[in-house]
Design a protein that fits this description.
The protein is mainly beta and about 300 residues long. The protein has five helices and 15 strands. The protein folds into two domains: about 170 residues, no CATH class; about 120 residues, Immunoglobulin-like, CATH 2.60.40. Strands 1-3-4-7-2 form a five-stranded mixed β-sheet, covered by helices on one side. A four-stranded mixed β-sheet has the order 9-14-11-10, with helices on one face. It is elongated.
Amino acid sequence: MGLFDFFKKGDKVGADSAIDSKEVLKDTKQSGDNRDVVTKLSYHPQWDVPLEQQYVFNFLANELQPLKPNQLSLSAINIEENPRTGAWNVKAFFRSSLPEAIELGEIELFILDKDDKRLASKMFNFKELGIIPAESARPWVFEFDQSSFESGVTEAPKEEGWKIAFNLISLRGHQLDLDETWKKQLPKDQQEALEKIVKDLPKLGKTEVNFTGLQAKLQNDKSLHVSIFIRNGNDKAINLEQLPLEIIDARNKQVAKGSFKLDPILTVQPNTTKPWTFIFPAQLVDIKGIDLSRWTARVPQE
């Protein structure tokens, strides 16, 4: 089945999901006015669209609501399930109300039901859509295979109001999540230094939570003060109430171990890294031969 075969005369444009283009594009020319932007139908330059299919695309494009300036939008049409594979072929218009042509890279998309509950998520390479002209709408089919479905989801949404939407959390990139107490204590240049460290850390998996050492200091009272990065690769916040933690030094020896009750609960926002300091009292620290030239913080597996 070719792409054109998915779009039929009976199709209707459904819910629209629009975002500010600044969420995706940092250095693109922006429009300064506030008029409604009526997007024009645009075909991929490699397409040879039959006359009858042009009629279908024009009919659907005419149903699209205007956008505000400088927006990117996904306008849902409908979903066809592949009877052989169970995949969802999601028909939509990708639209831009920017005043210049754009080309995008990899972006994660969601399928949401009418109550904004997530049904599926998948990364797509928007380079395949080609260059999108200024103020235009390009029809496309996004295939969500079964591996992209959320747990327990077995069928496509039947009720109106479902959406295909951008994952804004992934669009903004991984960020530093600095607690208010740290913001008050740290000078601006040190905050910026932390942001650079976070930016340069290895990329996390989509569901990965990682503990990365930042600074460890043995105090005069033989307590150990350890600052670590708590890194959350999920697109949902994590809440830490109790955290068992051990410190392994350069000799690969455990030099501290304890369990920390976090009150109030420590929340790490989606796709962010939060620095936090843990203090191991002297009785939980083995200082004999301790070598903190390299060290690792980890949650013990017991």
